[in-house]
Amino acid sequence: MNNLHYQPAMPGYNRRRAEWRVTAMCIAASVVLGAATVILPWWFVFALLLLPILAFVAWNYPEIAVVGIMAMLFGAVPEALMPRLPIAGGGVNLEDLGIVGMLLLLLIRRSGRVRELIAPVGGHLPALVAFLGVAVVSAVIAIFYKTAAPKDVLNEARPYFTWLLLPVLCLAVDNDVRARRFKKWLFALAVVLAAGMVLQSLTGVALFGKGRVWSSIGVSGEVLRSTTPGMFLMAGGLIYLLAAYAHGRHRFGVWMMVFGGLAAGGTLVGFGRGLWIAVIAGVGLLALQTRGERYIRLLMVLSVGALVLGGLVAVAKPEYLIAASDRLLSVGDEVEHGASYGRRKVENAYAMAKIAQHPVLGVGLGGAYKPPEAEYANFIADTRYIHNSYVNITTKLGLPGLAALLWLVVSVLRRTWSAARDRAGDRALGFAAFWIAFATMVVTAMTQPNMAAANGVGSIALAIFLAEYARRDRTTGGASGVPVEVRHG
Length: 489
What we know:
With 489 residues, the chain is mainly alpha-helical. Helix content is 66%, strand content 3%. The two termini are 42 Å apart.
């Protein structure tokens, strides 16, 4: 053994020279990173250090990476950890970069199978392409004819980029193994959102990014309202759980009680009447999909659960029940005197006037439609923001934008409801997908700009994907209809 000598693998190989090269590379990397910590912001350096890890996860476990992007999109990541990249006087969020980066990576990863994997959502593409085409024309006109500041155009165009999440989902979840893992992580995200909503309201500490906590509910001012951009995913998880129980796929147990209680609590502390109505409507629509006996049993479980949860809240913090009652009973008063309804009335009046002036092109993305009001001086987007989704789109994109949007809404609702009715697929998942689309595009769209907001667009894209997956997913666990490659990893 003493006579054995190391033989280089290649001619001309010098071990000492190779060691010096590695050392030189490490020194150079240290110098670059050291200089970066002085020149660049801390978050940029942190992102550089995390990039290799994120790239590894995105390449090998894209279904987990896309849930991470949705966690940022839906506000589950603290805002301090999500700085914006300044561009053209505005900013690009990390989730925007993540969606684009994931799409490019997956186009390489799934090369040769892109058309196959995108095929399930092909029925939505004509309406979606028409809608996005109108938005692109509006943005181009706004930039070239300088009808709005570039930063305002960028900020209002950002949500339309979120539609890229749809092909990312299709390419990331390409087999049954990934699909099962994706659904588990997605449900875990819904649990985090629900628990965070409750904790935010109880503690007054803003845990999430892009959400708010403020004391505008209750006469005493002791009840804090909590919001998160992920409210549709949170409530959608609850609807899925109820639908799965109604179909006999899940039994009533500890898990259903814990998550059901958290999701119901999160929905309550949001004090969003639109979301409340959407959840109640979802439970009602579930009767059209399930057998009478199972549905009656579900109603009994819901009644008992509501009594138990209401009793616990009444003992621990009765102010919540009083605030909820005041919120429901104040609808008529708000219509007559309320600032919230009054502001929407003013918005719609200005918007209708602008639509009459610019029926074809609208005011364009980033364009203002009304003069600033002193009451909302701290709200930078006051002259551009419109609550109602349909009025918003019509004002910005004109009547062609409204026509394309209505086409998209009808297409999404029709196909998601078809998936919910498909007896061969996962009807509970299909119904949850339909409910998310219905709640986002119909019920709450009257009071929130969901179709012109990143979280709303992300929720609709997720609903489309889940509906098409549910259509081909079988209750026995297999998949058919659309070729789905089964492989591990």
